[in-house]
Amino acid sequence: MFRFKQFEIRDELSAMKIGTDGVLLGAWADVGEATTILDVGTGTGLVALMAAQRNKRAIIEGIDIVEAAAAEARQNVASSPWSGRITILHSDIRHYATDKRYDHIVSNPPFFLSALHSPDVARTTARHTTTLTYDDLVTAAERLLRPEGRLSVVLPTDYAMQFRRVAFERLWLKRITDVVTREGEAPKRSLMEFKLTAAPLMPRHNTLTIHHADGSYTEQYRRLTEEFYLNF
């Protein structure tokens, strides 16, 4: 079990365990003005729970194609303070039939495009674009977002440009934060926010560093995540 300041997460059943990517996305995504939020590939429900903590009025749905992950996310939501505002669905976003439109979609999507697959089917589904391609996610966002709605994702920096190419002129990149694990290193992750709009945008670009060269956390990272981590 992983304990945050206001909730706890179990990740025994989910193929993808609690990691920095999900925490980064949950803390970084600009969900403050949203009234409806959809977490695609919710896994343990971490990002959905972080969104609920940050936005006290939003109605949130998490969706996952893996039944065990959805079941565990429901357990995590049920034990949280926000169980009345979060619903977890076991479904494939590509075939998710709904008339709802969302203000913000968040996703920590599969990203391995060509690497060898794990023999663990659930882990392969969670990590590889075998069941959710970048085009699938962008298409789902186009279909499910309200006009001017936003999509926020976290991806390895090596894959971020490919995602941007898929989204080009369908969703406009609004801002991007490159994440450096340790001072002096090249960025390893990119946080990106896209907007469903007809007006072209010039994205804002900045960098977030997690660790100083000596391994201590930067003040920048502490400020971003201090609402969640017990040791901050």
Judging from the principal axes of the Cα atoms, what is the shape? globular
> Uncertain regions: pLDDT < 50 for 5+ in a row?
114-129
Domain module tally:
1
> Approximately what portion of the residues adopt beta-strand conformation?
25-35%
Architecture (CATH level 2) name: 3-Layer(aba) Sandwich
Rounded mean pLDDT score:
92
Query: Helix share of residues?
Result: 25-40%
Radius of gyration: 17 Å
- Profile the largest sheet: 8 strands, mixed
The fourth-level CATH homologous superfamily is Vaccinia Virus protein VP39
Structural class estimated from helices and strands: alpha/beta
Number of helices: 7
Number of strands: 10
Q: Give the class-level CATH name.
A: Alpha Beta
Structure explained in plain terms:
- With 232 residues, the chain is an alpha/beta fold.
- The chain has a single domain (2-225), classed as 3-Layer(aba) Sandwich (Rossmann fold), CATH 3.40.50.150.
- The chain is 28% helix and 28% strand.
- It contains 7 helices and 10 strands.
- It has helices at residues 20-28, 46-54, 67-78, 121-127, 134-144, 157-167, 219-225; strands at 2-3, 8-9, 36-40, 59-64, 86-90, 102-107, 145-156, 172-182, 189-195, 204-211.
- It has an 8-stranded mixed β-sheet with strand order 5-4-3-6-7-9-8-10. Strands 1-2 form a two-stranded antiparallel sheet.
- β1 (2-3) and β2 form a beta hairpin.
- α1 (20-28) runs parallel beside α2 (46-54).
- The longest helix has 12 residues, at 67-78.
- It is globular and about 50 Å long.
- The two termini are 18 Å apart.
- Mean pLDDT is 92; it is low at 114-129.
